[in-house]
Amino acid sequence: MTDPYGMIDLAALKQPAGAPAGGGSATGGTPSAHEVAVTEQGLEQLIADSQQVATLLLVTSARVPEGEAFLASLRRAVDAQHGALRLAVVDADTQQRVAGALRVQQLPTLLLLIQGQIQPIVQSVLPDAEIDNLVTQVLEVARQQGMDVSGGPVQEQAPAEEPLPPLIAEAYEAIEKGDLDSAVAAYEKQLQESPADAEAKAGLATVSLMRRTRDADLAASREAAAQNPGDLDAQLLVADLDMLGGHVEDAFGRLLDLLRGADQETKNAVRTRLLELFEVAGADDPRVGPARKRLANLLY
């Protein structure tokens, strides 16, 4: 577990703080007491929880040979740690976008999610005899990073003292239901009433990104962009998919490269999309500042 995938940056899957990471199990059997089934809507909270508790993240399917036995062994080992470790299960059949965002190439894939970072462990079924040793190693990694591995429940985030603005709450509810059009409408209405609302700006950019990519085929989109470098729409879509998958620098770089020698219409379209993706990443993201500077240099 030495080569990290890098910092997860799935801002496109944001939801209200404290929302559940999912319920039940992605496959059969009895879920562990310290297990969550991962969904798009719950992934952001799962990442937040990994600041406090190391998480074994299993991407699998009911179609995987010996997959049920592997999952059962992981559940046993995780339960034995009494909350010092967590198990998160992604059903690759029903959560294809999550599996894609995690760059899973084969099933099952076992990953470690710790302090917002993901590290690969194995892309196969582990024998039951090796799992306890794996858990020991994971707990040692967590201990070295200053995490409490004594066990106990994940600390719940304190509830917000002030209630959410009604339209923001309406947008969150729509996202949870998968109704992205209604979420966009709620954010737009909030911005009409409060144009400086930073949360609404970021939310609108994030949900718009989700809406633009929801029907996109990753492989086909990349192939189309590679075969048609002058197709602006194809390049914009791949930049969106890069952003959704956490490849923030790739998304920014692809769009910025389009500005060299571009006509004014292309410049306007690229500038608009970049500003939206800057909102998705957030002003505090260290990659936004350099990209903004390069954008200004290329435009002016």
Tell me about this structure.
The chain has 300 residues and is α/β, with parallel strands linked by helices. Helices cover 50% and strands 10% of the residues. The chain has 12 helices and 6 strands. It has helices at 40-49, 67-79, 96-101, 128-144, 166-176, 180-193, 198-213, 218-227, 232-244, 248-257, 264-281, 288-299, and strands at residues 6-7, 35-37, 54-60, 85-91, 109-114, 117-122. The chain has a 6-stranded mixed beta sheet with strand order 1-6-5-3-4-2. Strand 3 (54-60), helix 2 and strand 4 (85-91) form a beta-alpha-beta unit. Helix 6 runs antiparallel to helix 7 (198-213), helix 9 runs parallel beside helix 11 (264-281) and helix 10 packs antiparallel against helix 11. The longest helix is centred in the C-terminal third of the chain and has 18 residues, at 264-281. It is globular and about 65 Å long. The chain starts with 5 loop residues before the first strand and ends with a helix. The relative contact order is 0.11. Mean pLDDT is 82; it is low at 1-26 and 153-160.
Q: Largest beta sheet, briefly?
A: 6 strands, mixed
What's the Cα radius of gyration?
Answer: 20 Å
Distance between the termini: 45 Å
Widest β-sheet, arrangement of strands: 1-6-5-3-4-2
Q: On the 0-100 scale, what is the average pLDDT?
A: 82
The total strand number stands at: 6
